[in-house]
Amino acid sequence: MLPPPGLSIIPSFLSAQQYAQLEELVRKAFNSSIEQRGTKGGRTPLDYGIRFDVRTCGVAANEEPIPIWMDDLLQQIHESTSYEKIQDSEDPEMAHSNINSNLSINSEDARPLTVLQHITDRNQSLLPLNFKPNQVTIQHYPPGIGIPPHIDTHSCLGTHILSFSLASTVNMQFQRANEDTKRKMFQPRRCLAENSQILNKGTTDKHPRKAKQILEIPLESNSLCIMAGQARYAWTHGIRRRNTDLTPEGSVVQRQDRYSITLRQVDFDGQCQCAYPDWCDTRNHAYDSSRP
After folding, report:
1. What does the pLDDT read at residue 112?
2. Per-residue pLDDT for 91 more than 50?
3. Which domain of life is it from (predicted)?
């Protein structure tokens, strides 16, 4: 099972000095913030530029601008990704020849045997030249806390989703979207996992469910994850709630505090034109960008 096309992970993204300064400032932002909105899942988000609603995957106006202490990260994203080209290959296996370790297909309850360390996109620049994030969400993940599998809203959140990781490494799960994904996405509350118990209560599935095929990929400290194409529009991503992860070598690692910086390019009047209508809110009329 190959990783989703359009997924890129760049390790050691900032210099050691830049990274140390950014991590210190992120920790200070949580310590000094007077508006920390804890969520049901145990994460704490801080929004800048535009507010991102973790319950609905929608957006709203926000008076807190993106802080200037993120300038090094934003500048490095522009310099390191906008002009980088990846060699094209018609062979899918060769296209991912820079994978450092084997993949493993996991059932929902199985621990990963092996994980993927480094993927790059192919035949395109990693980011469009006009990519300029106007929405940033910093989240604190205490040990054991995760995020339910989801696809970021198509219309208002742009073609590329970026996530920069700080502190503890964590394994992110990727799964190809299916009919269950579609059924859960377009409920009033879009978070996939939070809907599952409500939707399945008192119902019988007429079709036997197959074991879920899940890719687990480590997001290391100081790595930048870019989701575009299928990885952005047609695969779910999430972090399972648990206290440990397995390294590519099979060692058990205890999770510690983790922080992530998610960067998006928001268009309140966006109309998605992707090639994946089954999971597109524009085609399913599931998101009203004018709502508060």
Report:
1. 38
2. no
3. Eukaryota
